[in-house]
Each structure stands twice: as C-alpha cells, then as structure tokens.
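ARCHIVE CARD
Drawer: 12
Card no.: 0347
Subject: one protein chain, sequence and derived structure
Cross-reference: see card 0346
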Amino acid sequence: MGKKITLNIAGMHCASCALNIEKQIKKEFGVQSAIVNYANTKAFIEYDESIIGQSALEGVIEKAGDYKVLKDVALPRMDLETKRAFNKFIWALAFTIPLLLSMFITIELPIIFGAQLQNWIMGIMAGIVVFKMGWQFHRGMWFQLKRFNSNMDTLISIGTLAAYFYSIYIMFTDGHVYFETAAVIITLILLGKYLEVKSKGNASSAIQRLLQMVAKKARVIKNGKECEVEIDNVIVGDILLIKPGEKIPLDAKIIEGSTSIDESMLTGESMPVDKKIGDTIYGATINDNGAIQAKVIKVGADTVLSQIIKLVENAQASKAPIQKLADKVSGIFVPSVLVISVITFFITYFFFGLSLELALINAVAVLVIACPCALGLATPTAIMVGSGKGAANGILIKDSQGLEIAHKVNSIVFDKTGTLTIGEPSITDIFVVDKAEHDEAKMIQLAYSLEKSSEHSLASAFIRYGNANDLELLNAKEVQAIAGMGITGKVDNFNIQLGNRKLLDELKLRANKILDEQFIRMAEEGKTPMFVVINNKINGLVAVSDILRDNSAKAIKNLQKRGIDVYMITGDHQATANAIAKQLGIKNVVAEVLPGQKAEAVKKIQARGMIVAFVGDGINDAPALAQSDLGIAIGSGTDVAIEAGSIVLMSSDPMKVVSALKLSKKTFTTIKQNLFFAFIYNIIAIPLAAIGLLNPMIAAGAMSFSSVSVVLNALRIKRVKL
C-alpha cells in the first residue's frame, strides 16, 4: 500500500480538465492510482513515496494546464469561490446590458477612423467582457494548446474570439457587428459557472457540515484544576469535563457521572442515548443534561467523526462503473466538437452557399452549445449528495461501486445475533408454580444471586436483570457448574439449582403438567427455559433469550414488499432458529452454521444467480461481508466487520438497511437521469446549432443551464425521506 493524499485543485472548468489531469498523473512512475473529481475539484492519489514525492505530483498537476494546487484550504473556500464567480458575472452583465440595448436603439454617431463611433464603443465594451471577465477561458485554452490538448475553455475561447474579431473586421465594411453576441456568450457562461459553483457547494455541503461539527477547544482537568485548551493539544488519557449542553470534544470513556447524549449527528436517530460510567461517548455529539468527566481514548484522525468524514470523502472520490462511458465520451468530446464546428462552417459556406457571416455564426453556435460539463457532473454530483444524505442519517457509503450494486440486490442475508437481535441474552419470562412459598421476586432474587457468582454462559442475562431492577444481592457459596445441565450452589440457607431437563433427571425430580406446558411453549418461541429448584423442589421457570430488535419484523416485511428474498443465518439449533424466524416472518432459514461457514452459505445463494447483500456485525461476519455482492456492516459492531462492508450503518436499527437500499436506488436513478440529460442535450443541441436553428446567445444560455440542471437534479436526493 502506498501513501494516499487528497489535493484541492483550482482552475478545472469541465470534465475534460479532470480527465486530462488524471491522465498526466497516472503517467508518472510510482503513482499507483489517481482519481480526479471535477465535481468536488479534488485529486485522490496513491503513490510510492520512495519513487515520487507530493511536491512532484503537485508540479505535474500545475503543468497539465492552467491549474493550481491549493494548500491549507479553509472551510469557507466554496463560499469565497461562489462570491468571486458572482462578482465576475455582475461586472460582465453591467457591460453587456448596454450592448443588448444597442440592438433596439440606434443612435447616429459620426465615423471615426473608418468606422462608426457606436461600433467603436461597442467594441471596447465587448472587449472588456471578452478579454477581462472572460480571460480565464482564453488563458485556459492557451495552456491546453501548448500541450496539444483541449477542454471547455477551448470551445468558449474560439467561439467568442471568432465572433469578436469578425465584428472588428465587419465594422469597417458597414456590415452587422456581433459584439453583443461575444459579450452575451461570456456573460451567460459566467452566470452558469456561478450557479454551478453555488449548486456544487450545496451538493458537497455534507462534508462541510461534518467538518464544522469538530470542537475547537476542550475543558481538561489537570492537577485538579480546569483549563481550556485547543483541541489539537489534547492527548489520549487526558480527563475532560463536559457540562450540560456542551459539545463533546473527542471520543472518550465516562469515568464520573451519568447523562444522556444526543448522537443524532452520528446515527441519524433523534432520541438521546443514556450514558453511565464505563460507556463510550463520541466527539461532536451533544451532552444533554448531566455534568460528566471522561478519559480521552481517541484523538485526531482516529475519532469516529474523522473516520466518518474519511468514509464520505472516499465515497465521493470513487468512480462508479457507470461513469466509465461518460469518461470515454468526455475524453474525445472537445476535439469532436471542434471538428464538427469546422465541418459546419465549410459545408454551410461552400456547399449551401450561406454568407460568411451566417456560416461563422452557425460554427460559433456549435462551439458554445456543446457542454462537456454536464457529462462530468452527472455521476459525481449525485454520489456527493447521496453519500452526504446518507451520512446525515447514519448511513455511510464507503464507495460508489457499492452504491451502484445496492439497487440491484434481490436477496438479503441477515446474521441473527446482534443484527436482528440485540446480541445479548436477556430474561424474557418468569413463571412460578407456588407463589405462596416463593413468589416471582424472591425466586428471581435467589437465581440472580447464584448466577452473579458463576461463570455460567447465561449469567449475564441474570446480572443485567438484577442491576436493572436494583435487586439485593444475597450471599452465595459453593457455586459450581454442572456440565451440560446447569449450575448449583447455596444462597442464604437455600440450596439452589438452575438448569434443563437433564438437571431434573439428575436430581430425580419430575415437572408437573403446567410446568411442562410452559417449558415447551418457551422452547417453541426460541427461548432457553431453565427450571429453578429450591431445596429440592421445582419452584418455577426462568426463560432467557436474545431479544429481537424493535424494528426487525418491520424491516423484514418492508424488504419482502420490495420483492427481496430475506434469509436469516445463525449458529442456533434449527428449532430455535425456526421459532425466531417465525416471529419475524422469514421463510428462508440457515441454522447450525459455524462462523467460518457463513461465507459459503452466501456463495450458495449467489450460485443461483442472486445479487446478495449480507448484514452482519461481528468478526466472524467479515468473510461473509466480503463474499457478498454488497456487505452492510452494523457500525456498533467490530472494526473488522466495518472494514469489510461496503455500507456502514451507524446504528443497529434494521430499518436502516431499508433506508440504505432506498437511498441507493434514488441515487442511482438520479445518476442515470443525469447521464441521459447530458447525452441527449448534446445529441440534440449540436445538430440544431449546426443547421442554424440556434443563435449563439441562446446556445450559450442553454449550455450554461444544462450543467446547472444536472446539479439541481442531483440535489433532489436531499429530499428523499429515509
């Protein structure tokens, strides 16, 4: 693996620019991969440091054309760029409006130096627009020309210069000048650029919002005193003091106090989460109602927020497979348009006998109506908005390939434990035979006290129940496990046993009919029932189960309505798995599967021609996540699982799976719409311009708004309800 860097590039005006820079970078020895994104004006490069350095790569970019690598880009850069684009358009408009009025108002002015004074004035005003406000296009064309390349600057520069210098020539021959045409073309394109930059800023606002969430300072306790320090000066192990209403500066573990935390910026869930001593809290979340002290466990790039930003940036940097066609077309687009423009001029002038004036106007219209920008923006803007929308709702899309696959998924495999269930055993049922002797409260207190001192596999369920219900812990002794049966011991003066039917056989006890019926009912519901024996008498039953998540059944039903086959995979016994699947409405159950066999189970479903998504959260899910066509990792799970997934869900709500697929489908539909609009626009507009049906001014306006319309269409993704 080489070093990965992200460079911000100024001066890109169209998709051809991005492809040109990308091509030049890839030529360099030592570069392992390079993607240049026109939509967010960034280059994502991986290279071998021992062969080539970052400064050399920056030099390659700047030599590729009129481009500049921006260093230490501040957050408001997009706002500054938008302001500059607006100011440039306003100045161009101020000089263009009088030129447009001259088309309707004729003033008789004297002839000076062989031409009417009015034409001299128009020529000067148009020259200011063409050469001052439009200088970026001519400069860009010159840089491309020196390298025998071309881009959108080439089309605009040639078109406006042709109209301008033809007008200079014609003003001495008493013909009609086209100064207003040259000025209007520049002005409308500058308007389009302003709207494009503004729209792109909205499209990339997700990253900006995430970066703005980072706390600037932290209150640290050192030597018993509070002191406020810059966030960059906080180190792992520092103790933070966070008061109610304050933003949590960094990832930390609570060591004093309890509170509730608003984690909506991470998970998309609006309900605050209760936190106590030992719980982890995350940077940029909000402390709702309690003063707490917490020890810092992660800083800088290691924090969860930084990882989210990195994932979103990586998704926006990656290229979806569908973009390959657009890239191929963009690579030959500008040269092709130049050829079409020249052919248009020669055919209309020499073969159809049009005047020099009309032939030239048609050729200029072809140049200025062609829009490589729309092709370059079609895919990345949709991915930018889609990934940003996902991040705001706790859905992290790691790469655009996953986004493209997600809408094709027709089978979903859920790992049961920790995904459809909470992943922790809990007490679900307490049944007592004779309440007069030992009621429910007394029986569960005795069982809790016994389990608290044991290493029984289900002890955690009793401990959680006891802690949640503030049960008094009684003295337990002589506690020992009985292999395959349960546990035994003494609590106060009671002999206590907890276990299965084998334990009853060992104790030579027999359950009555009521107990038998309850035991069977609990087992059929997928629970693990245990007999509670007190002083050699069966007192009742306690059932333990891994509880289903609140939205599991709702998510399954929703997916099935979408025509997706749902599978549940688990290591549980077949009968237990069937019982849980029945509650969820799942018909496809793969049970008694060892951790290493999950990937093989996914492969079998794929062998039937299905596009499979796997949803899991544990280390043993990583191979299955990697094997599936789309890995969806639960963010509350392990880092290994998250690394393997293509989509990461920051909360354990199964409905997030539905939301992820919905977002994917909307984003991919938008990409297809954008590409269709971009292609169809150029396919229709260029021939219309060639046959003289489009005035160059109308063509310039159409070109400007075609790229803006693509971005605006992408912004519609923000309105999707997840």
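Annotation on reverse: The two ends are 37 Å apart (CA to CA). The first strand starts at residue 3 and ends at 10.
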